[in-house]
Structures are given as structure tokens and as C-alpha cells.
Specification:
single chain; alpha/beta; Rossmann fold; 7-stranded mixed β-sheet; 6 helices; 7 strands
Length: 213
């Protein structure tokens, strides 16, 4: 079952779907072996291309996100979902995305905050919303909106799952009981999270960002 982090990401992306038009570049996204349930509405766009270093994901551009072989001002929108934490130099990639984006083009970014260490292939950092805004503003992005994604109970639920996955007793009867409890308690944690939404500015699974060039 997907984490609540992934639940919040899918919810955010589906909420932005009507704004994803023209040519979209999914930087670090996976054409194959996708995570989550979000699927672009291909009938409503001109093109949706993927940039990735992992050839097993069948990217349209097998290259570093720091240097993408496309012209300046050539895409209408870009995605950077759960990518920045895996980059040693994320600011270089954000500048590259800015270069590629047309004037008034849109960007959609997500980045975890209170989340387990997850190398893919490496895991370098977590940023606060203040850090994100500062970097994006200096690059030149406009209309930057940064929102928390889930509160304290989303964080607890996902860290609970991470601890179960990394348990030395995984596969045992007790472990199976814990996994079953985890699965069936999901609606309760979502309900509790809504009741404690006031915690989100300080305790959150991560951030969603929308912006314009």
C-alpha cells in the first residue's frame, strides 16, 4: 500500500492536472516502473517527456538533469517530484529547469521533509520551506507557492511503515500482524491528520511547490 507521502503527492498532482498543458518535461520521473497512482492526461497535452539517468525507466532523455539536451524556453511546464533530495547539486537542476521553461511556463515540485532516508541512488538533504523559497526566488521564479503535505499523523504513519520494512523480524507472524494493523489503520490516520492540520507548518511529510517563470 502506498505511503501517505505518496497519497499526498498524487492528490497534489491530480489537483494541478488541468494546468498541465502544452509540452511537459518530467525531470527525474519514470515512464516505466512508476511510483504512485498519478498518470498524466496525455490527450490534453502536446507532449510529456521524461528525463532520467536510469535506463530501466525508459526515459526520453537518458542524461543528467543538470544538462538536458533541449533549447532555451522550449517547454511549457516541468515536474520535479521527489527528486531534489537525491541530487548533490539541486540548485543546478532548478536553474536548468528555469532555462528550459518558456516565459509564463509553470513548474510543479515536491520534496520530502520529515521522511526516512531513501537513497535512489543517494539521499543528500531535506529543505525547509524557507530554504526552498530563497533558492527559487534567487533563480528568478515567480508566484512561488509552497504548501505542506500532511501533518504529524501522516509523518508518524510513514515512519511506522519504514520501521516495519526495515525490521529484522520481517516475515514473522508478529511482523505480519503489525503490517495488517498498519494497512487497516490508514483511514484512522488520515482522519486524525485532518484534525491536527494545524501541525503542518512545522511537522509535515514534505512540500508541494507551484511556480511560474
Amino acid at each position: 500500500m502506498p505511503s501517505l507521502r505518496r497519497y499526498h503527492i498524487d492528490k497534489f498532482l491530480y489537483g494541478q492536472l488541468n494546468k498541465m498543458t502544452g509540452s511537459i518535461l518530467d525531470i527525474g520521473g519514470k515512464k516505466e516502473n512508476k511510483r504512485g497512482e498519478f498518470k498524466p492526461l496525455l490527450s490534453a497535452i502536446e507532449s510529456w517527456k521524461y528525463v532520467n539517468l536510469d535506463f530501466s525507466t525508459n526515459p526520453d532523455y537518458l542524461c543528467s538533469a543538470e544538462s538536458i539536451p533541449l533549447s532555451d524556453n522550449s517547454v511549457d511546464g516541468f515536474l520535479l517530484c521527489e527528486v531534489l533530495e537525491h541530487l548533490e547539486n539541486p540548485e543546478l537542476v532548478l536553474r536548468e529547469a528555469f532555462r528550459l521553461l518558456k516565459k509564463d511556463g509553470r513548474g510543479w515540485i515536491t520534496m520530502p521533509f520529515l521522511a526516512q532516508v531513501h537513497a535512489d541512488p543517494d539521499d543528500y538533504q531535506r529543505w525547509t520551506d524557507i530554504k526552498l523559497y530563497s533558492v527559487l526566488d534567487k533563480i528568478g521564479y515567480k508566484n512561488i507557492i509552497i504548501s505542506p503535505m500532511g501533518g504529524v499523523f501522516s509523518v508518524f504513519y510513514d515512519l511506522w511503515y519504514a520501521s516495519l520494512c526495515r525490521s529484522n523480524s520481517r516475515g514473522s507472524l508478529l511482523s505480519k500482524i503489525w503490517f495488517r494493523l498498519y494497512t487497516y489503520s490508514r483511514p484512522l490516520f488520515l482522519l486524525l491528520d485532518k484534525s491536527f492540520r494545524h501541525t503542518q507548518p512545522w511537522i509535515t511529510t514534505g512540500w508541494s511547490i507551484t511556480l511560474v517563470k
